[in-house]
Design goal:
The complex is a heterodimer of chains A (554) and B (383).
Chain A: E1 2-3, H1 8-13, H2 15-38, H3 40-48, H4 50-83, E2 84-85, H5 89-95, H6 98-101, H7 104-115, H8 120-129, H9 142-166, H10 170-178, H11 183-211, H12 215-220, H13 229-238, H14 243-274, E3 288-289, H15 292-319, E4 322-323, E5 332-333, H16 336-342, H17 350-382, H18 386-396, H19 403-414, H20 421-449, H21 454-461, H22 466-495, H23 498-503, H24 511-520, H25 524-552
Parallel strand pairs in A: 2-3
Antiparallel strand pairs in A: 4-5
Helix pairs in contact in A: 2-14, 2-19, 2-20, 3-14, 4-9, 4-11, 7-15, 9-11, 10-11, 11-14, 13-14, 15-25, 16-25, 17-20, 17-22, 19-20, 20-22, 21-22, 22-25, 24-25
Chain B: E1 6-15, E2 18-26, E3 31-35, H1 42-50, E4 53-54, E5 57-62, E6 65-66, E7 77-80, H2 92-102, H3 107-120, H4 136-149, E8 154-158, H5 166-183, E9 186-191, H6 194-200, E10 203-208, E11 211-216, H7 218-223, H8 228-233, E12 238-247, E13 251-256, E14 259-264, E15 275-279, E16 284-286, H9 291-296, E17 320-331, E18 336-341, E19 349-353, E20 364-369, E21 375-378
Parallel strand pairs in B: 3-9, 3-10, 7-8, 8-9
Antiparallel strand pairs in B: 1-2, 1-5, 5-6, 10-11, 12-13, 12-15, 13-14, 15-21, 16-20, 17-18, 17-20, 18-19
């Protein structure tokens, strides 16, 4: 049987995503794998070295610990958002998206300002306990890494599990209760199995992000004792130019991450198949108001959570307006850092140009990732079967490969052609696009799935061909998701540091790079001024998205 | 058969475990209703007519043209979907004008066409609204206007009333019938609602398991089912399993758990066993006036007890007698459905009783049945 959905147009639409995936993802990955295979002997040497065995151990240790802390911190929030009704619930939900889009280097900067040895928490210590009390050392240790990772990832559990909890049908708990189950047993038998896939997704994503984390470990790790595979690959490639050892380590890291991603995908598929629900009920459970006792613990949870999210951001913005005349002078209000960033002075013009480059690269990434994801999502919407599954696996794979490794792969490939800054920039755009593609695809494919298959069929009956139907009917229906994907891609690219540090040509500095260098030069206030611009850029993009959404659905 | 009929010629298609094999002709200018249980292939047949699905084998002809391999946009087919499938980002008017625009009309002309069909469906007053602001019935009217605005050769309606409440469904049924008669368009409507099918169809096509079971005017399918599925799926039917058939010169005698029935050998072919006698509840009439008698005792019998003593009438026009026990009485507000059975496990009969007090469960009743309302159907006719 030949179906309408199996016409040629969707297959043609897949050509570009496939081509981009091969060039921008598969080719550099194969280059790293090939280089790694050539230096398998090196791998043996690396793994027999006590230092690298320690690096592997720390990588797993910090990722597991961070995942555990993030999930434990996220679950009460998920419960509060999904099952309870309280003032400020919407605000808490909105705030929980902030870490998703916050560039890691900004989070790092904010953490230094709040939890650093000379940060706000230690100011509080001096105020409470006196200047002679011992310093609170949060950062430059495993504790610092885990704290920063938890800040980044607890909203993941909060949102993913919270959304799943909110969408549980009313009928399942009623059925369990009517059959004699207590509320606890009803939760255990009727709800927990349905929440497990969401919990698995949140935990796996958190583990992957922490396993592949770069900026947090690089800056807050505090040195070689707490280095991870990702940071070691970067050091070997960027500073020691040891491609053999770098590729061997990259191979180990990518194999572990991709294997984990594969196991997760299989387990998730099985769990979801087991939970398939063909009941037509759509009635959801009503949220209860907080009881007095619950209000207390909700406050005890929400207040630190909100502070944890907001304090680093607020610290960046506030510090951009502060300064000291000398190292020991008191803090005063000043606009000198802003003037320095955008006016004359020592680093005149460099950060302003960095902002422009970041905008341009982010804009190009947004367009490329959104267009690619849209074409792929259209293919998935129109086709069924193994080709769609394979495509979705392929598009999900960049989640399991860090952009340091992609950047490294491009460096290996770049040795095959004459040196060219344009090629390096193209590789940088490709690496940013690959980082954004899995998210963009999920967003847009979800929107396509929301369109009744009868809608394009109706357009076809009216006389519109497949491309006209895509342009006139289907794209307008997913344009909000396309805009969201575009803004996410822009924010992701604007904050991307890993591949940029490896691939950017000598004179090409982006905002995260400039911030990273300023932190390295202890120019914290200047970094804050530039960081505030980055915050403004991301906030502005999301505010525009919000206004667009209101215009679309008033 | 007109050259403009919608013809499915030896259509075959396989979708996983489901297979469809259809030979059917739907008359030009008439409303054909495809009726059948869920999963029988009704909507797939509609998809084939619209071009959403192409068959593995066979030919689809519409308005005298072979359209089997034509893309939907190249056919002149209007479709009204179960979920309306309106374009949510367009106004009602733009939804209806979309088809004429796609078919080459200018903007003004397309809008004029849209207004014409919105007037026909009585939706012209809401032409500037978005679909999301309309009620279910209004959305369905817009969907109908959009399908008609391309002035198609064929109008397909896929369970268009299933999402509507009963009153709105009745109202829209009348509207669709009016518009179909006014425009004279060939229309095919898919439904699993028998009442809807019988009320609307000029031509009824009954499907089961991917095959066409019986086609014709609804009255013919109702009164002369050619197979057990048609007889039992369309309305309520009583069934008596045949125990034995005795073929005589001009007739054959059929022994059932409720008595022996005579069939005219000239008008009715004698089937092989296993076979079933089928008739409608309205075919039964209580033989005498035994209500007072059967209330005296549950064992009371208002006619001779021994069924073999029932002498079959040799004339097929003479009334035949059936004996059955009351199994269940279901009240419908002013009337009762009396469920009857015999000693034979597969026998099920229904009788509509108008009265305040129903017969007691367990008592035996004798009915007379009109010979012309009996259908003797072989089991192999079951599709």
């Amino acid at each position: 049987m030949k179906r309408l959905s199996q016409e040629g147009a969707p297959a043609l639409a897949l050509i570009w995503p496939l081509l981009l995936w091969v060039v921008a993802f598969l080719a550099p990955l194969v280059a790293v794998a090939f280089q790694g295979a050539l230096s398998l002997g090196t791998l043996g040497g690396l793994l027999s070295s006590e230092y690298y065995r320690g690096v592997v151990k720390v990588t797993f240790h910090q990722a597991l610990l961070s995942t555990l802390v993030s999930v434990v911190l996220g679950l009460p929030g998920a419960f509060l958002l999904a099952r309870r009704r309280f003032w400020g619930q919407g605000l808490l939900k909105s705030l929980s998206t902030v870490p998703f889009v916050l560039p890691p280097i900004l989070a790092v900067l904010g953490f230094i300002l709040v939890f650093g040895n000379a940060g706000a928490m230690n100011d509080l210590r001096v105020w409470l306990l006196g200047a002679d009390s011992p310093k609170w050392r949060f950062l430059y240790s495993l504790r610092g890494i885990v704290l920063a990772h938890a800040f980044y990832n607890f909203p993941l559990t909060l949102r993913i599990v919270g959304d799943a909890w909110e969408s549980l049908p009313l009928s399942s708990t009623r059925a369990a209760r009517s059959l004699g189950a207590s509320p606890a047993r009803s939760f255990w038998h009727a709800d927990v199995p349905r929440l497990l896939p969401a919990l698995g997704t949140a935990a796996t994503l958190t583990f992957l992000y922490c396993f592949l984390s770069f900026a947090v470990v690089l800056v807050l790790g505090g040195g070689p004792n707490l280095s991870t595979l990702e940071v070691e690959v970067y050091r070997l490639v960027k500073y020691q130019l040891d491609f053999d050892q770098g590729s061997a380590l990259a191979l180990v890291e990518s194999s572990v991450a991709l294997a984990l991603l594969g196991i997760y995908a299989l387990a998730d598929m099985k769990l979801r198949q087991r939970n398939l629900d063909h009941s037509t009920t759509t009635q959801k459970r009503e949220k209860k108001a907080l009881s007095r006792w619950e209000s207390l613990w909700a406050l005890a949870y929400a207040l630190p959570a909100v502070l944890l999210i907001l304090a680093p951001l607020a610290a960046v913005v506030i510090n951009s307006f502060l300064g000291r005349a000398t190292r020991s002078a008191p803090l005063t209000l000043t606009l000198s850092h802003w003037k320095r960033v955008f006016g004359g002075g020592r680093t005149a013009g460099v950060p302003a140009a960095a902002a422009l480059r970041t905008f341009a690269l982010g804009g190009l990434t947004a367009v490329t990732a959104t267009a690619t994801a849209t074409l792929a999502a259209w293919y998935a919407y129109r086709r069924r079967g193994i080709s769609v599954k394979l495509m979705e696996w392929g598009l999900g794979m960049p989640l399991g490969v860090s952009s340091v490794i992609l950047g490294f792969g491009f460096l290996i490939l770049a040795r095959l052609v004459p040196p060219s800054p344009v090629l390096r920039l193209a590789a940088l755009l490709a690496a940013h696009t690959m980082a954004a593609l899995p998210f963009s695809y999920r967003l847009i494919a979800g929107a396509f799935r929301g369109i009744s298959p009868r809608v394009p069929q109706a357009a076809r009956c009216c006389g519109a061909g497949p491309w006209r139907t895509l342009w006139g009917i289907e794209l307008p229906l997913v344009r909000r998701s396309m805009a969201t994907a575009g803004v996410f891609s822009l924010a992701l690219s604007a904050g991307e540091l890993n591949a940029t540090l490896i691939l950017a040509p000598g004179n090409f500095t982006t905002m995260p790079m400039a911030i990273y260098r300023m932190i390295g030069a202890y120019d914290i206030f200047g970094a804050c001024a530039l960081g505030s611009v980055l915050i403004l850029l991301c906030t502005g993009a999301f505010a525009a998205l919000d206004r667009y959404g209101q215009k679309e659905h008033p | 058969m007109s050259s403009k009929d919608l013809i499915f010629q030896d259509i075959r298609l396989q979708r996983g475990a489901f297979s469809l094999h259809v030979n059917a002709t739907f008359p030009h200018g008439k409303l054909t209703v495809i009726l059948g249980p869920s999963g029988c292939g009704k909507t797939t047949l509609l998809d084939l007519a619209a071009g959403f699905v192409q068959p593995d084998e066979g030919i689809v002809c519409s308005a005298g043209l072979d359209v089997t391999h034509l893309a939907p946009e190249k056919r002149r087919v209007g479709v009204v979907f179960q979920d309306h499938a309106l374009f949510p980002h367009m106004s009602v008017q733009d939804n209806v004008a979309f088809g004429p625009r796609m078919r080459g009309l200018g903007k003004q002309e397309a809008r004029k066409r849209a207004r014409k069909y919105l007037e026909l469906t009585r939706m012209d007053a809401l032409s500037h609204r978005r679909p999301a602001t309309l009620s279910g019935g209004e959305r369905q009217r817009v969907a109908l206007a959009r399908a008609l605005a391309i002035e198609p050769d064929l109008l397909l309606l896929d369970e268009p009333f299933s999402a509507l409440d009963a009153a709105l469904r009745r109202e829209l049924r009348g509207e669709v019938l009016r518009i179909q008669k006014e425009t004279g368009i060939t229309a095919v409507l898919v439904t699993h609602d028998q009442e809807e099918a019988l009320a609307m169809a000029d031509h009824l096509a009954l499907m089961r398991g991917g095959e066409m079971v019986q086609m014709g005017p609804p009255q013919e399918l109702w009164e002369n089912p050619t197979n057990l599925f048609t007889a039992t799926f369309l309305g309520r039917a009583s069934q008596l399993q045949v125990k034995n058939i005795d073929v005589q010169e001009k007739c054959f005698l059929v022994e059932t758990g409720a008595g022996i029935l005579s069939f005219n050998a000239v008008t009715q072919a004698c089937p092989n066993l296993p076979a079933t006698v089928v008739f409608r509840p309205e075919a039964l009439t209580l033989w005498e006036n035994p209500m007072e008698d059967f209330r005296r005792s549950t064992d009371n019998i208002c006619a001779p007890r021994n069924s073999s003593s029932i002498s079959p009438k040799t004339s097929t026009q003479a009334p035949l007698l059936l004996q059955a026990k009351v199994r269940e009485c279901i009240y419908h507000g002013g009337s009762w459905t009396i469920k009857l059975g015999t000693s034979h496990a597969g026998d099920e009969m229904e009788w509509d009783y108008q009265g305040a007090l129903p017969p007691q469960v367990g008592c035996s009743l004798i009915f007379q049945v009109r010979p012309e309302s009996l259908h003797l159907l072989p089991h192999e006719a079951l599709v």
